[in-house]
Specification:
heterodimer, A: 263 residues, MetI-like fold, 11 helices, 0% strand, B: 342 residues, alpha+beta, 21 strands, 25% helix
């Protein structure tokens, strides 16, 4: 393959774009591991800043993980049966409902948070508890769960499968447990990973809803950039990466798999 | 088990009458086929028997002496084979077959034993641990049958069990299915639109059209003495001989035919195998097409009726297109039927 001018330009643009994206990330990671960022790498490498991050922000990290798990639990309990109901009753009303559930995707997180504050802001106990942020996260992530499960359910012959299970003596609850859920599993898995990833990374809405005692991982990150030395903020980025990148990769894999099935 | 259906009907919310009031009895161990074109109500009737469709008020479905009309599908103890087979893709062959026993909480040891029995009966032993997605069409059909039979249902219902297979496989599996159903000695109802399937498998056939039961009887009876032109056309592809009846003779463009004595019908039909080439025959026509199909020729002849009349010709030699031929149809082979009410 000869390196003609157009091909060379193509390659150059691609490499430049990649560098544009990757260099700051590397720089930030390196900064988080350097003894003194302003003296550069020659000052030596250290895990001290990572330790500092843990000391200062362990609560945020644990809160984010707890929130993600709770958010996953709620979206599973609401989202899977909702997707099942939508798949079983296809029709105009179902389409409208589906769009309605997806509305939080189109509305900016800030607006969503404002609405929640206006509605529940005066309920102090609720306002200052972590469940307040959970409500925001559920609103924001639910459409991803419903759509992911719905796509897989629509791709299979749900009606015949359920009818044949019924003739074999299975009640509605048994059919849901033994036929619907296991066959929807690729969609549930893809939805679950998406929900966890989004919940851990969500900043917009969470920033509006948080209190000084309730900072999630990304809110803590903003806080560390605003008020800590650069090394600590960079080490924080590193921690964030370590948590979110494997999740992102798993999500990509699960979503691909679910899409293969629904095609 | 004896299945008794009285006054079964189904009207959809939009007013479509899928099934007009119908009575039907299927005896112990009998295999009955519901035969008809698509949309004739045969699948609706099958689903009413299964409990998958709620019939109109006034319908009565009895399994022996028990009225099951209002019994939920999961408590009726029916075995059903679906058109698409609807095997559970998340389970192995063994788990599919054992599903009905498992949800009925049959103890594990007994369950395994029953599954092994059915696996052997349906010659699926070698495939027990496979995923159902790794099976051929014929194997899937056997798994669907085995799964329906494992819980020992009171009645077996089959919805177009062969239509998902390709044509070559369908013919060979038809006889296999017939043999297996006989072996089970179970009361069975099976729906099909293919007359060859119904003739090969069923003890009795119920021909349906436009939501109505046209005729119920053994295959030979339906073939030889159809009560309506629909049945005559649908079973054995009888061809109409449109002509006027004058003095006990049928007057056709190609000649006159004597009718059997004492008939009161107004429409006359004949089957291709009863149309004979005979130089002394009373009908004259021109050969239009000749198709060789192994044991016989199928010859299309113009000029007898308004349309092409087909004759099955068993000879070693056939006339050529364009030849003039004479035909004979024996009076006893004519089907003289009343006009269809439609």
């Amino acid at each position: 393959m000869r390196l003609t001018l157009p091909r060379f330009l193509q390659l150059a643009v691609t490499l430049l774009t990649a560098a544009f994206l990757i260099v700051p990330a590397i720089q930030s990671i390196v900064a988080g591991l350097t003894v003194n960022y302003f003296r550069g790498l020659s000052s030596g490498l250290t895990l001290r800043w990572v330790g500092e991050v843990w000391r200062l922000y362990a609560d945020s990290i644990l809160l984010s993980m707890g929130l993600a798990v709770a958010c996953l639990g709620v979206t599973l309990v609401i989202g899977v049966p909702a997707a099942y109901a939508l798949a079983k009753n296809p029709g105009r009303l179902s389409r409208i409902l589906e769009e309605f559930i997806s509305l939080p995707l189109a509305v900016p997180g800030l607006a969503l948070a404002l609405a929640l504050l206006q509605l529940y802001g005066s309920m102090t106990g609720f306002r200052t508890s972590w469940t307040f942020i959970l409500v925001g996260h559920v609103l924001y992530t639910l459409p991803f769960m419903v759509r992911s499960v719905l796509a897989v359910l629509m791709a299979m012959d749900l009606k015949s499968l359920e009818e044949s299970a019924a003739t074999l003596g299975a009640s509605a609850a048994t059919r849901f447990r033994t036929i619907v859920v296991p066959n929807a599993m690729p969609g549930i898995l893809a939805g679950a990973l998406t929900v966890v990833t989004l919940s851990i990374g969500e900043f917009n809405l969470t920033w509006m809803l948080h209190t000084p005692y309730l900072k999630t991982l990304p809110v803590g990150l903003a806080d560390s950039y605003a008020s800590m030395r650069l090394e600590i903020a960079s080490a924080y980025t590193l921690v964030f990466f370590v948590m979110i990148v494997p999740l992102l990769m798993a999500m990509q894999w699960a979503t691909d798999r679910a899409q293969r099935i629904s095609r | 088990m004896t299945l008794t259906i009285r006054n079964a009907s189904k009207t959809y919310p939009d007013g479509t009458r899928a099934l007009l009031p119908t009575d039907l009895t299927v005896g112990q161990g009998e295999i009955l086929s519901l035969l008809g074109p698509s949309g004739c109500g045969k699948t609706t009737l099958l689903r009413i028997i299964a409990g998958l469709e709620t019939p109109d008020a006034g319908t009565e479905v009895r399994f022996d002496d028990e009225d099951v009309t209002r019994l939920a599908v999961e408590r009726r103890n029916v075995g059903m084979v679906f058109q698409s087979y609807a095997l559970f893709p998340n389970m192995s062959v063994r788990a599919n077959i054992g599903y009905g026993l498992k949800v009925r909480k049959v103890p594990r040891a007994e369950r395994e034993q029953r599954v092994d029995e059915v696996l052997a009966l349906c010659r699926l032993g070698d495939y027990a641990e496979r995923a159902v997605t790794a099976l051929s069409g014929g194997q899937r059909q056997r798994v669907a049958l085995a799964r329906a039979m494992a819980p020992r249902p009171r009645i077996l219902l089959l919805d177009e069990p062969l239509s998902a297979l390709d044509a070559a496989l369908r013919d060979s599996l038809r006889d296999e299915l017939a043999a297996m159903l006989r072996q089970f000695r179970i009361t069975a109802v099976f729906v099909t639109h293919d007359q060859a399937e119904a003739l090969a498998i069923a003890d009795r056939i119920a021909v349906m059209s436009q939501g109505r039961m046209q005729q119920v009887g053994p295959p030979e009876e339906l073939y030889r003495t159809p009560v309506s032109s629909f049945v005559a056309r649908f079973i054995g592809n009888a061809m109409p001989l449109p002509g006027s009846i004058v003095d006990g003779r049928l007057v056709l463009p190609g000649g006159h035919l004597p009718l059997p004595a004492g008939t009161s019908g107004t429409e006359v039909f004949v089957r291709a195998e009863d149309v004979h080439l005979d130089d002394a025959g009373p009908l004259a026509g021109t050969v239009e097409t000749v198709a060789f199909s192994g044991g016989h020729y199928r010859i299309g002849i113009a000029g007898i009726t308004g349309e092409t009349l087909f004759a099955t010709h068993p000879g070693r030699q056939a006339p050529r297109p364009g030849d003039s031929v004479r035909l004979r149809i024996d009076a006893g082979d004519l089907l003289v039927l009343p006009q269809d009410r439609s």
